[in-house]
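Intended use. Records like the one below are meant for learning the mapping from a protein sequence to its folded structure. Do not use them to infer anything beyond what is encoded.
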Amino acid sequence: METKQIHIAVVGLDGSGKSAVIERLASSSFSFEECTSHQQMDTLSTEPDVVLQVVDAMRLRECLQMTPSFMEHDHPLVIAINRYDLFLNTGHRLDLQTFREQTGVPVILVSTVTGEGLLELMQTLRRAAIVQKRQARERYIVHGWEQTNEEAWHAYMEGLLQQVLIHPETDTSTWEERINRLLTNKWTGFPIFFAVIAGIFWATFAIGGPIQEWMQSGVDALYAWLTDVIPDGWLQSLVADGVVKGVGSLVTALPNIIILFFCLSLIEDIGYTARVNFLMDHFMHLLGLHGRSFFPLLMAFDCNVPAIIATRDAIPNPKNRAVTMLMVPFMSCSARLPVYVLLISTFFDRRYQALILGSLYVLGMLLSFVLAFILKKTKWFRTGEEDCVNELPDFHMPSLRSITGHVWFRVKDFLKKITTVVLFASIIIWALEFFPACDINDMEHSWLAAVGRWLEPLMAPLGFDWRMCVCLITGIPAKEAIAATFAILFGNDLTVMALSPATAYAFLVFVLLYFPCVATVSTLRKEVGWRWAMFSVINSLLVAWLAAFACNLIL
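Structure written out for the chain above:
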């Protein structure tokens, strides 16, 4: 007589050994279907006879937090704890008898490597398949647990673990485990993260500032020499005012760029960036995303384009991938850094420069989170619950070759851009400023002034004059061109703009948020289509205007 095939729903976190258990249990008696959360239980193609939760003993607390949600379902539950032998090597152990009595759930210790416990697991699954569903449910109620919300589930399991988890008399954890606990704990991890970021921004100005001033004096000397050796006229103005002022203003920001990206590359090479992803995982879940979405956002501090491309492999869910891509343009890429350095060093006290720079990065990140939260509530991007970030790579000794290689790649890319796109933009801006009056000092009657004044009424509530409007226009193809335009319009002394700190900060906020560069828009079009690429453009312009207006109003 043919026996009925038992359908088993195999649940658990990624990397817990689900696939290995299924492979070892494969037979004509069982059919399997994997899912990752209790929400997906209702979407299975076949109603399961038994739910098998595979728990990685080396991530015990993280895996067992999901257990109460599976206990709540009307299906018999069996727990298989994989890699328990490694768990014992840490000096910890479980009081399995108490665990079984408190939950009423069979717990089997297995090893997918040696095959230990798999036969017992198969027998337990067969027995569980004929257990009446109501019996398991009543067993939970006997122990006084009837709530079904997520907080109650976590509280229940945390209390149970305090009873059944037996710790060694002495702490046998390695130094890496202790550091991981420190860096990924919400009470210590976030202060450490903000301290690290603050230190990086402080170093960017404290170390880079004096070098920047020295390089600026070199650009000034070159400008003075060129005005002496080249006769008066359009050629002198083109070379001195157009090229040297425009490109030179960006060259002076090079020390700050090198320091910032050296520090960012250092913490990534060590392995700290992965800990930040883990730390942010719970917060990203509140937005309806996965901790994996945070890594492309960090990459966007370098350049938005590769950050968008990186979401292809980092985020398998297409809806979450699209939301992350739309968040990326709000991240402050390296192209904006020369503009920040130029304006912050001019209009803000040295004591607050690192704070101002850091606030721009934080503001961009916060607004991207708000955007994600809103988008995830819409019908286009609503999805089920995502898995958690589970694995942390080992710490590494930083490789000077790797770090310098990454920094050189960014410096080379920066120099290539300022000698091509920015140089071309600088010449165009110079021509619009020089003609038709043929006098670089008569900006009021230039073509450039006509363009700026056309936009000035729209930007006047933000405190921006026509010259600042022109700078924003030149930043559309490449944000570095904004700094070059400032240098061409105002020379080496930006204080002649007579901006208040509030207006200067409002302008920085607008630069942070408005119109993704052309390369970013093009990449978004390829990845998510024209509709969402145009949404990013229009949304960023609207958010930038409102944020800058709020800065001028409040500060």
